[in-house]
């Protein structure tokens, strides 16, 4: 019987560590197919993806993925809990996935499951400890860790819960439990740099983080190009791809004008910033107070960042504002079980049996042609689709503004098929 293993990813951009995860996932599970649920043109850090989603889809397919589906932008740009819940719900409702593979610091499920079980149960003792820690001014991750410690979490599980590299893994396990999914989780020990490491190692055997690769690309002094020292951090299958194609990267500050316009427009219309996803009253008040001062995207983050409001949380809030993501919409998506369609970004031709199996088993409509989506979707599904189209067209406008290049829009861009 054919087996399918899934990976949830951003591939921002694809690097050797991602290739290693796909290879190990196939080896450990014996899966015939690797299905990837990938963020589209905006990512969970609260910024644009460095490359357009079709480029990152091709990278994934060149390096071992068989099918790439899109994680809709409301979830792709959301907090860790909503990001994980959106992706896991999509995989669960496809009805074809046997395994979910994710990276972790320890490479063991035991401490991650222990942490996820306490977090999933939300006992009165945990909730009270969490509230007390938040009142002390701790960030949410710090407050949660302190609450877990007070609830008797083992030292191994507490260490796992404290690692940012394990945050999403714990959320994946919580989501699998919440949806009573039969998908079996597996975890693969991370190799090389940590998630937030921002410099490339001179050792080609030391896997660079996506953060380090993005920083190297952003700091290139002669325009975007693949430097020689960068080649050693690329999978073999991507080296010629980089050499033979043109790329049009985006970085957070490329969104500055659009963010400033949206902020001023919202306040001019007397809209309330707390209506946008993740905005607290305090953050809304502080942003409103500085609205008339022009700043870059990253300058606004630095101006708003505090011990309680981390850089990434602020970045996500600003992105939600820019993309017009309302808190009421996210609450609606949560109530209705997250994703309500599965959109194909690309696949390998020999994965056609997997696509057929999804069509037979999925609880979700399968979108392969954007032009036909309106006839397949209604209600909440249509709202999510509209947000995706809007976000992608904004992304393409940013690419045109920076590079003077018109990318194929959502209705003219073909599937990536290898």
Word description of this protein:
The chain has helices at 16-29, 53-62, 73-76, 80-94, 109-121, 124-135, 140-150, 155-162, 167-178, 210-218, 228-231, 236-244, 256-268, 281-289, 297-304, 311-323, 327-335, 352-361, 373-376, 380-403, and strands at 4-9, 33-39, 42-43, 47-48, 67-71, 99-104, 184-189, 342-347, 366-367, 416-417. The mean pLDDT is 91. Strand 3 and strand 4 (47-48) form a beta hairpin. Helix 5 packs across helix 8 (155-162), helix 7 (140-150) runs antiparallel to helix 8 (155-162) and helix 15 crosses helix 16. With 418 residues, the chain is α/β, with parallel strands linked by helices. It contains 20 helices and 10 strands.
Features:
20 helices; 418 residues; 10 strands; globular; alpha/beta
Question: How would you sum up this structure in a few lines?
Answer:
The protein has 418 residues and is α/β, with parallel strands linked by helices. The chain has helices spanning 16-29, 53-62, 73-76, 80-94, 109-121, 124-135, 140-150, 155-162, 167-178, 210-218, 228-231, 236-244, 256-268, 281-289, 297-304, 311-323, 327-335, 352-361, 373-376, 380-403, and strands spanning 4-9, 33-39, 42-43, 47-48, 67-71, 99-104, 184-189, 342-347, 366-367, 416-417.
């Amino acid at each position: 019987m054919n087996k399918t293993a899934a990976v949830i990813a951003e591939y921002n951009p694809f690097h050797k560590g991602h290739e290693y995860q796909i290879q190990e996932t196939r080896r450990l599970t014996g899966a015939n197919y690797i299905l990837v649920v990938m963020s589209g043109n905006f990512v969970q850090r609260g910024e644009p993806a460095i490359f357009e989603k079709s480029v990152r889809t091709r990278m994934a397919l060149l390096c071992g993925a068989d099918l790439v589906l899109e994680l809709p932008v409301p979830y792709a740009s959301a907090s860790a809990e909503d990001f994980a819940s959106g992706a896991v719900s999509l995989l669960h409702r496809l009805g074809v996935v046997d395994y979910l593979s994710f990276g972790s610091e320890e490479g063991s499920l035991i401490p991650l499951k222990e942490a996820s079980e306490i977090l999933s149960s939300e006992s009165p003792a945990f909730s009270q400890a969490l509230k007390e820690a938040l009142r002390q001014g701790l960030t949410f991750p710090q407050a949660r860790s302190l609450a877990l410690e007070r609830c008797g979490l083992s030292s191994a599980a507490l260490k796992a819960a404290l690692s940012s590299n394990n945050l999403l893994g714990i959320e994946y396990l919580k989501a699998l439990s919440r949806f009573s999914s039969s998908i079996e989780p597996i975890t693969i020990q991370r190799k090389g740099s940590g998630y937030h490491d921002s410099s490339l190692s001179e050792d080609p055997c030391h896997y660079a983080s996506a953060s380090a690769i993005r920083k190297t690309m952003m700091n290139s002094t002669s325009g975007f190009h693949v430097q020689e020292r960068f080649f050693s951090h690329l999978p073999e299958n991507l080296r010629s791809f980089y050499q033979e194609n043109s790329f049009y990267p985006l970085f957070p500050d490329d969104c500055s004008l659009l963010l400033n316009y949206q902020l001023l427009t919202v306040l001019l219309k007397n809209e309330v910033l707390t209506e946008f996803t993740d905005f607290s009253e305090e953050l809304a008040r502080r942003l409103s107070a500085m609205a008339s001062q022009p700043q870059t995207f990253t300058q606004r983050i630095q101006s708003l960042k505090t011990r309680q409001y981390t850089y990434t949380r602020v970045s996500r809030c600003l992105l939600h504002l820019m993309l017009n993501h309302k808190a009421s919409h996210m609450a609606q998506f949560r109530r209705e079980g997250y994703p309500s369609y599965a959109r194909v970004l690309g696949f390998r031709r020999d994965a056609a049996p997997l696509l057929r199996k999804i069509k037979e088993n999925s609880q979700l409509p399968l979108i392969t042609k954007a032009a036909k989506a309106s006839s397949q979707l209604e209600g909440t599904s249509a709202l999510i689709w509209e947000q995706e189209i809007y976000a992608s067209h904004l992304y393409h406008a940013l690419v045109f503004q920076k590079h003077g290049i018109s990318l194929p829009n959502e209705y003219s861009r073909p599937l990536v098929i290898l």
